[in-house]
Fold this sequence. Notes:
- The protein is mainly β.
- It has no helices and two strands.
- It has a domain at 16-48.
Amino acid sequence: MTAPAPLPPPAPEAPIPHTACYDRFRLAEGKVVEHWDTIEAIPPPSAWKNENGQF
């Protein structure tokens, strides 16, 4: 009986940029009838147009 071969090291992953997410729902009679969302990358602070950040 032989030992199993070792697993290869995991591949390096690309860095995931920071993101901002926003969900908005409209309800009618207790049910979701509309949904809006946005997902955007957050730019570095040097690219911000104000000091408040993304939203």
